[in-house]
Automatic annotation (TrEMBL), chain A:
GO terms for molecular function: nuclear estrogen receptor binding. SMART domains: TPR. Keywords: Cell projection, Coiled coil, Cytoplasm, Neurogenesis, Nucleus, Repeat, TPR repeat. SUPFAM superfamilies: HSP20-like chaperones, TPR-like. One of its GO terms (biological process) is outer dynein arm assembly. The keyword Cytoplasm applies. Residues 3-87 form the CS domain. GO terms for cellular component: dynein axonemal particle; extracellular region; neuron projection; nucleus. InterPro entries: CS_dom, CS_DYX1C1, Dynein_assembly_factor_4, HSP20-like_chaperone, TPR-like_helical_dom_sf, TPR_rpt. TPR repeats lie at residues 370-403. This is Dynein axonemal assembly factor 4. Gene3D superfamilies: 2.60.40.790, Tetratricopeptide repeat domain (1.25.40.10). Its main location: other.
Automatic annotation (TrEMBL), chain B:
PANTHER family: MRNA EXPORT FACTOR AND BUB3. This is Dynein axonemal assembly factor 10. It is found in: Dynein axonemal particle. PROSITE patterns: WD_REPEATS_2 (PS50082). The gene is Wdr92. Its main location: other. Key assembly factor specifically required for the stability of axonemal dynein heavy chains in cytoplasm. SMART domains: WD40. GO terms for biological process: apoptotic process.
Amino acid sequence: MPVWLREHSWRQTLTAVYLSLPLRGARATPANIFCSEQYLKVSIPPFLFEAVLYAPIDDTNSTAKIGNGNIFFTLYKREPAMWDSLTLANADKEKLQYLRENAVLKAQEKAKEETEAKKITKQEHKKYALEATMKLEEAERKRIEDLKEKERQKVAKELELWKSQQKDGDKYKSIQKEGELHQEIEPLKERKNEKMNKTRILNEGTSKTRLKSTKGCHGSCSIFSQNLKEEQLPAPRVAATIKVNFTPRVFPTALRESRVAEEEEWLHKQAEARRIINSDLSELEDLKEEEKNPDWLKDKGNKMFAMGDYLGAVNAYNLAVRLNNKLPLLYLNRAACHLKLRNLHKAIEDSSKALELLTPAVPDNENARVKAHVRRGTAFCQLELYTEGLQDFEAALKIDPRNKNIEKDAEKIRHLIQGTMQSS
Amino acid sequence: MSAATVGPERPQVVSHVQQALSYTVFDCKWVPRSARLLCLGSAARGTGVVQLYELHGARLELLREIEKPKPIKCGTFGATSLQQRYLATGDFDGNLNIWNLEAPEIPVYSVKGHKEIINSIDGVGGLGIGEGAPEIVTGSRDGTVKVWDPRQSDTPVANMEPVQGESKRDCWTVAFGNAYNQEERVVCAGYDNGDIKLFDLKTMSLRWETNIKNGVCSVEFDRKDINMNKLVATSLEGKFHVFDMRTQHPTKGFASVSEKAQKSTIWQVRHLPQNRDIFMTSGGSGSLHLWKYEYPAQRSKKDSEGCEMGVAGSVSLLQNVTLSTQPISSLDWSPDKKGLCVCGAFDQTVRVLIVTKLNKI
């Protein structure tokens, strides 16, 4: 139950009402006071004072002063009139209730409107500030653009000037050229004349532009000396060839520093893949590390072949094939060894295996395929299977049409075949 | 468009004219002693295109268009006289042709020089620059570099080819240099595996080689007609090297300074004809960088064994500008007007630019 404060005192003038409300020791803050057009309430729990005013007041301008245990209200009347009493008498409960609620609603609306107004003004201020900065920046930009434009125009003008001089120079030259056609003077003297005119024009031109006059002299000097030079141009150089070695590079693409790491990794992987494929052969345990590397074995085989040790080479290649049977070059080289050893059937087998592995047919393995065909062809011929041999030589010729040796051999075989056919 | 700073004294790159083309332009060159420029390239139907433009105010006027059976990769005026101004071109089929632009139906000189595309061409001895016979050098994907004399048909006067049995590398760029008298001449070639080789044509031998670890896109001497002074080599990965060519050490070769300009390939380098210490590089990101080389206090010093070795200077960036989103593959300074240059990019546009304030450097 609130405790009603009733010891208020008031007096009035035509335009204002002065209300004094003593607080019984309670502390009041602005939050405790609620005032609207026709309703005034002070609520400091447990104390309560409310008054439904006789007539509407202007609540925005009215004030309340808190101090000395007292609240002093200065309420400005809406309409200047003398009030009979402070509060509305004969107000029934419902009307009071209604007025109270109305008052609260009205206060809320006012508060909303105030915040709205504040927001709007804030936005407008912001907009204004933004526009001002934009204007400043525009001005700056325009200044820079103007500078650039001026440069551009200056430069364009100079260019026009230079161009007009070029045109004059050209015009004179064309007139001179026509003169050439009509006259019949020795070509040498004629050329000298033309050049002299040109130098004169050039000299005039140079004095107008910013080219230094010395350049004009140089021009004429060089043209005169060029004249002499033309009659004395050295003979064409004696043809020669310089052989060039390139820094080795595996990939056909250009070298880029950023890709070097990737490329190294790829090459490393390739090398790894070519090493032991079937590593579970028990005999491999007593081989040395390098002997397990098919590439190393291939190199060893090649060396032995070069030295004439064909059996040793075949052994090396055999071991390499056991380690990695997917390398066509091993079969190719082993075929060559077998040819030398006159193991012709084995040579044919190996060349065939090599050709199988050398599919697909790409320019990269052209050399290898030519060799395979040539070796197989030779083996066939030595077995007197000339038609098969010819087939191989022709295949080799198809891959590499410019190889004279293959052509010669193919011719020989053709003759042999014709010879045997005639005789049989 | 550009990130150029508008400082008071820095050179500015002003884009003067932009011309859209209906074909891919591979090379653009100024016609000497004129305001005309040539664009060489490949049309969509696989034929070669040569277009001759003239600069008129703020636009380019097409004077002539010539179509050839094979796409054209590169061209040069370097080996013709000023009166004739014949254009030497290399095409995608390996043919070297020299054309008279007044009568372009039949070439003045033609040879099937290489088995594969001619990537790069250079000429020396013409235009009043350099002494000695006019010669053209071509570098091709078949790994060979051949020097031709227009007076001798069918066979080159020098052939730099791989050793028998060696796999070939793409030659991407060639340049002449050291042509200061009638006998001396040098050809520098850059390959896709990063090799740079210097061939001496007087002794017909390899004078120097090195590997810069990235494919070499473009090499150029600062001047063809003087005792070789500087060589700039640009490569993939945004790097370029400037070699001081005055002092050759027996083992260490030439001293160099290298700079990494941007993340993308540097397609071309071109020195300003009027000032041999200023050069422009064009990049795969469509940007152009203008550089200045500063010489060191002493250009050579003695090493621990008393041999002379060169000292490289330093390179500073004067200006950079981004013109396009596609690589700028070709660049040419006008030999007549300082600061005027043309560049062709893979977005099928050719642009004429003016670089200002080059006098103040």
